Amino acid sequence: MNELELVINEVKKAVVGKDEHIKKILACILARGHVLLEDIPGVGKTNLTLALSKALSLDFHRMQFTSDVLPGDVTGFIIYNQKTNDFEYKEGPIMCNLFLADEINRTSPKTQSALLEVMEEGRTTVDGITYQLPQPFTVLATQNPYGSAGTQLLPDSQLDHFMVRLTMGYPSLEDEIEILKRKSQENPLDIIRSVCKPQDIIELQKQVDQVYVDDKIYDYIVRIIHKTRDHELIQQGASPRTSISLLKMVKAIAYMDHRNYVIPDDIKKVIYDVLSHRLILTYDAKVKDVVIQDVIKSILKEVKEPKIKI
């Protein structure tokens, strides 16, 4: 059993019935991306993040976003130290390996935008001085899809910085019974072992970079993305950043499936997670109650799947 399988097994001690979500979030970390978890309260979003941070031995910080949170509360600030007679940087909670931005849509656009440089560049600038973030670094943000009171919708530029958007959903009847049993005995988070170190993750990320991608796969990815830009039901298609995100995710998925090369099925496994939050449907599509998943499915049918010799 390799390191990644050990990590997944440890996380499963605290997260029941969400194996695919665990795998995709771990793949996103290996792809150096960021995750948006959009779901109703109480389905285990925070629990999953805590479990991952423990199994991966990551420095973890959680911040509850509210309307009064300022950019400096996230990135840190400069203060005067009377003892040293100098100004010094006080780190914000963003200085960690895994940052949980809880209910990110409840804070102001100004504070949301403070995360843009952090998510894109892996660094933050305070009073003109740039500070590098620890590596590996991943932002895992949550937001509730229903109830807009007191919320600020994430702008397209912010959404585009999340490699994937995932929805956990309700547990099945059997899984919820198992959750109750585990919670009645002890806190499952207390029994999670650390089976991986940050340096191990960095090495795994380098190995993911080396996963082979055939020219036909490159062509397949770009044709799918281009199809979103001239589709009759899509008002705003996917950006080139989407192509890059999709490529990185499929390489990570292939690696986790014990392959050093990408196949078309890898794309199908993550295409909805990578595309769904980046596309804007036309007014007519919304009136007809067309959902983005159906549009993506139609695009996959229209774009010819390449034949890859294994």
Report on the structure:
Pfam families: AAA_3, AAA_lid_2. This is MoxR family ATPase. Residues 34-164 form the ATPase AAA-3 domain. The chain has 310 residues and is α/β, with parallel strands linked by helices. It has 2 domains: 3-191, Rossmann fold (3-Layer(aba) Sandwich); 210-302, Orthogonal Bundle (Helicase, Ruva Protein, domain 3). The chain has helices at residues 3-11, 19-30, 45-55, 71-75, 109-121, 156-159, 173-185, 198-209, 215-227, 240-256, 264-275, 283-287, 292-302; strands at residues 35-38, 60-64, 76-81, 86-91, 98-102, 123-126, 129-132, 138-143, 164-166, 234-236, 280-281. A 5-stranded parallel beta sheet has the order 2-5-8-1-9. The chain has a two-stranded antiparallel sheet with strand order 3-4. Helix 2 (19-30) packs across helix 10.
Structural class: alpha/beta
CATH topology of the largest domain: Rossmann fold
Number of domains: 2
Proportion of residues in helical segments? 40-55%
CATH superfamily membership of the largest domain: P-loop containing nucleotide triphosphate hydrolases
Low-confidence runs of at least 5 consecutive residues: none
- In the sheet with the most strands, the strands line up as 2-5-8-1-9
Oligomer, anyone?
single chain
Number of helices: 13
Q: What is the H/E string?
A: HHEHEHEEEHEEEHEHHHEHHEHH
CATH architect. name of the largest domain: 3-Layer(aba) Sandwich
- Label the overall shape: globular
* Number of beta strands: 11
Q: Work out the strand percent.
A: 15-25%
Distance between the termini: 24 Å
The main pleated sheet reads as: 5 strands, parallel
